[in-house]
Structures are given as structure tokens and as C-alpha cells.
Amino acid sequence: MSIRVVGAGLYRTGTKSLKAALERLLGRPSYHMAEVFVHPEHIPVWHGAALGRMPNWVEFLENYAATLDAPAAYFWPELSAAFPRALVLLSIRSAQSWWESASQTVMRTEGMVSPEWDAMNAAISSTRFATTIETRELAIQGFNLHNDRVRSEVVPSRLLEWTAGDGWEPICSALGVPVPDEPFPHTNTREEWAARERARSPAG
């Protein structure tokens, strides 16, 4: 078994919904940031990768059919090379709506998990993200640069750009699988994120 989809889209671009959708289509788990929460032993692996110590991706991801969201999305060049037959899926949304969502969710979690988590994120941000996420302007610039790099470096026949409103059809067509007779999953709204973080917080 091998990775069939390399998700290159950044967080808050529908990646949690894609996780559910791809698991439905491919019948195996998708590696999403949620996996790192339940596998803290993976944190040193991603931290090391940010510093240039790449794992054996085939072995590390042997139980998964797809990668999505951070931290994997930052390593799409290495993952797409390790799995040359995989579809590269770039989930996108408008830069302004991405900022509004990300600034109220992911960007507010520093110090809420563990020092090891923060160190991993700091290493990835300094070596992988196109620029700082400390201001709206620079974050949006980094978001656009990331997406433009994916578009410029992945051959068109291998790349699928997808937005949350696109649903099943583009993904199923690219993977050559039937379209399920059920609604596309939509999950991890801003409200769901806030409730989950309140529960995780020591004060929650």
C-alpha cells in the first residue's frame, strides 16, 4: 500500500473535510494534523524533517492513503517525490477568508499543546513557510507564495486544485473512483475548532 494523495494545501482550506472524504474513497486513514495529536511520538520526526533530517517516508506513512494539512503539507515536495504516482491535491480558498479563519484558530494555539509541539512548529515556520504569520499582510503573502510554488512545480497532469465547494466530483475523477451517493463531508468549522480548543486548554 502507498500514499495515493499528497495534500499540498495549507490548514483551514477544508483539509479536515478532505480527510473524511479521502478515507471514504480510499478505505484507509489520511494523515492530518489530527494524527499528530494522537501520536506525539511523531513530533520529533516532523521537527527533524524541518531541520533537514528526512525520515523514510514510505515506512513512516505506511498505514495511510493520503497526507493533508500541516505539518505534511509543508513537505509536499519531498512527499510527492517519495510517492511519484500520487495525486498532488492543492486545497485552496481566497487569501482573505483563509486569513480570517486561520487567525482565529490555528494561529492562536501557541503554548496550548506542549513545548515540543511549539518547537516543532517554530522549526517548520522558520524553514518551510514562505514568510512570517505574525501579520495579516505577511501571512497572506506567504499563503499565496506557497500555493504559487505548488502550481509552478507540479506538472498539471498530476495537480488538482480544489475548493470546499467543489465536492466529490473533481477528486473522484482524478483518482478514477466512483462518486459516492452521499453528501460531501463538511467538518471542522471555526466554531467546532473553538470548542475543541476550549476542551483541550488547561482552563477548559
Write a brief structural summary.
The protein has 10 helices and 5 strands, in the order E-H-E-H-H-H-E-H-E-H-H-H-E-H-H. It has 204 residues and is of the alpha/beta class.
General description of the model:
The chain has 204 residues and is α/β, with parallel strands linked by helices. It has one domain (5-200): Rossmann fold, CATH 3.40.50. 47% of the residues lie in helices and 8% in strands. It has a five-stranded parallel β-sheet with strand order 2-3-1-4-5, sandwiched between helices. The longest helix is centred in the last third of the chain and has 18 residues, at 136-153. The termini are far apart.
Shape: globular
In round numbers, the mean pLDDT is 88
- CATH homologous superfamily (4th level) name: P-loop containing nucleotide triphosphate hydrolases
Main sheet: which strands, in order across? Answer: 2-3-1-4-5
> What fold name goes in the CATH topology slot?
Rossmann fold
Helix content: 40-55%
For the record, the CATH architecture stands as 3-Layer(aba) Sandwich
The CATH C-level class name: Alpha Beta
